[in-house]
Amino acid sequence: MKKSLYKKLLENLSTDPFTVTFWDGTVKQYNQGVPEFHIAFHRPLSTKQLTEDPMLAFAEGYMDKSIEVDGDLEYIIESIFNQQGSILDQPLALSALNKFKSTGKKQSKDNVARHYDLGNDFYKLWLDETMNYSCAYFKSPDDSLYQAQKNKTHHILKKLNLQPGQKLLDIGSGWGYLLIEAAKEYGVEALGVTLSEEQYKQTKRRIETEGLQGQVEVKVMDYRELIHEGTTFDRIVSVGMLEHVGHANIPTFMEHTNRLLKDNGVALLHCITGLVEVEGNAFLNKYIFPGGQIPSVRELVDGMTQNDLRIFDMESLRLHYTITLRHWKRNFEENLHTISQQFDERFIRMWRLYLNACAANFTCGISDLHQFLVTKGPNNELPMTRDYLYE
């Protein structure tokens, strides 16, 4: 394996000083100064893969222990993200959205199962008691993860301006915490739909434990099937689901949101966003979120306006997601003994890479997290300012 390819990749990897040990024992420093981190290649990586997709090659090299790093993994990835033209700074812009096919219902369910059906016991180890697997809301940096996830849920519910007796739909309802809180605190009738069997089972248990049968319901169902039931809702919420829809399906999602909302109804869409439309990250698509694609703000807004969904409020929670991910990765590391009894070392290194890379991603502003509050047609009943959220 010639080192010329590595030299080209590593010379532009980061502006921070770092050292590299190659498989033959030679050591080289890049950039002047005291090294901030060290990378060791225990064996050469595939030349073909390095040429075609260096980001995926490095990720798999780390997963397979062909590469080891000495230093804070999140900081190292952040350092590489910040270097324009590095192996991690190569998003593939979409030349035309129509080159993507819409994801069918079976494929959507299979994609969800790959990630969310790893087992409730696994997620309980590093999420908090609410089992919220999305960006939390920190009123203070000292908030616990549990408190911040409660904050997030009630931040959303207040924005929706829920009234007793209203019907609420949660598209991609996760493990059901928001449904339960909406029913208990606001007296609404709530329906959640998910494609995850594991999330469905946990939500059913929560509904029964809280004695909310008849007021809260959960179904294993693709949201696209709901319009056939002829039911409409006063409020719709979707948290962390639009990232799984895919660029080609954004118009479909917005159309169904419009058709499922009553006139003057309100919806809150909470999702990761990008500045521009890009293809899905190869590592995440292959190992973490098959079929996942981060929507851009402009394609979301276009989909909304094409379906008479009027933006009432838009809020960025990007920095909250960095803190959320740091809690998750700390919990993950603190529970390695138990996790290692369920999964092998390659899985553990894969998830460690995923959590650290995501934290660096939000710190660097590669992705954002937005909450869009929209209404079907002009709604004059929502509070005029956000002041009511902080009372």
UniProtKB/TrEMBL annotation:
Q: Which GO terms describe its molecular function?
A: methyltransferase activity
Query: Record's family?
Result: Belongs to the CFA/CMAS family.
Annotated ranges, domain DUF7884: 5-89
Protein name from the UniProt record: Methyltransferase domain-containing protein
InterPro entries linked to this entry: CFA/CMAS, CMAS, DUF7884, SAM-dependent_MTases_sf
From the broadest rank down, the organism's phylogenetic lineage runs: Bacteria, Bacillati, Bacillota, Bacilli, Bacillales
Q: Does the keyword Methyltransferase apply?
A: yes
Q: Which UniProt keywords apply?
A: Lipid metabolism, Methyltransferase, S-adenosyl-L-methionine, Transferase
Organism, as annotated: Sediminibacillus dalangtanensis
Gene Ontology BP terms: methylation
